[in-house]
Amino acid sequence: MLSKQTVLVLGAGASFEIDMCLGETLMKEIGHQVNMQFEAGHRKGGSDVIYEALRKLAIQSKQDINVLHAAGRQIARGISTAGSIDNYIHHHRNDAAIKAVGKIAIVNAILQYERKSKVFIDETKHPKVFRDVDGLEKTWLHSFFRLLGEGIVVAETLEGIFDNVSVINFNYDRCFEQYLWLSLQNRFSIGDEAATALMKKLRIHHPYGTVARLPWDDRNGVSLGADPYRGELDLHQLSINIRTYNEEVEQGDKLEEARNWLNVGSRVVFLGFHFHDQNVELMKSKLPNEEGAAKYAYATVLSRSGPEQIIIKRQIAEILRCPPNALTDNVETVSCKDLFSMWGTTFTH
To answer: Strand, coil or helix: what is 221?
Structure first.
């Protein structure tokens, strides 16, 4: 078990280790999917799945399908300079068509990458097994879960395995939850229901939402990596779960609760987090400006220059509301897994 209140802040780099995509790849994928080009009445571009989802949306909402197709082409032209799909949608937050098409494309792309990820589970096979068990042993998830279970006695302390853990996950995917759910069963020889009961005790917040809740978490949930080509997935309905920056700010209560985790946690670990200004701003508490207690902060900053790292250290201090002399920071140019290898045992002592 972790010995002190620990907050994980997960960015795209944390999911990259398990074969999810980084923002640059996601932007290119979405740009290709929504680029609805036509020639002589025949479609020459865009994804079949997105085309069908937009057709259904136009019928349900009585919209002009051409407006949605035009929004897709607009996204395809402009997304490459926006930095991320989140930024692009935020820029056009007052354009309902761009928001609708962009969010549908996010859901479809995330489901595609979930299917390719190391934690995908083929539900037609039993017993349940991750797609790439050997590969997972080389990721931070494996290192983290080993630490999390250290010292646990099933009949005595398993119920409190998540007592000192809170998670702020900026990713849309559900891979982190899926990994923990099955790993609890494998390591501690418990069933689906017992693992689900434990997972419901984990404090986790996705500032920008997720594709959907997983089936073990909700009877109406959507499987990790569900295939829109099969079944009756409504991508537009799922896209309602995706939030933009301003929508998350307006939501209020859940966001402030997550900010409070940062205030009370004595250790904060930023994994694969890029420290974009709007995400940093999102985590800053809006309560009266009182300095928090002394904290330990850890962060991965692969491919970030020396000057960038100085800025990141300042951003961490601002997020945690710590005076500089009260913040013990370990900003490392390593992978997420390597950070846990370097500092992991400190979390259990």
So the answer is: coil
Q: Are 224 and 216 in contact (CB under 8 A)?
A: no
The tens digit of pLDDT for each residue in 44-54 reads: 999 999 999 99
pTM given for the model: 0.93
The 10s digit of each residue's pLDDT in 113-147 is 999 999 999 988 889 999 999 999 999 999 999 99
Q: Where are the beta strands (DSSP E) in the chain?
A: 6-10, 38-39, 42-43, 165-169, 203-205, 267-271, 295-300, 327-332
Q: Are strands 38-39 and 42-43 parallel, antiparallel or unpaired?
A: antiparallel
**85, 38 in Cβ contact below 8 A?**
no
- Choose among 79, 74, 96: nearest CA to 239: 96
CB atoms within 10 A of CB 14: 28
- Residue 82 gets which letter from DSSP? S
Length of the chain: 349
- CA–CA–CA angle 99, 272, 92 (5° rounding): 15
- Segment holding 137, helix H or strand E: none
**Sign (positive or negative) of CA dihedral 307, 312, 318, 320:** negative
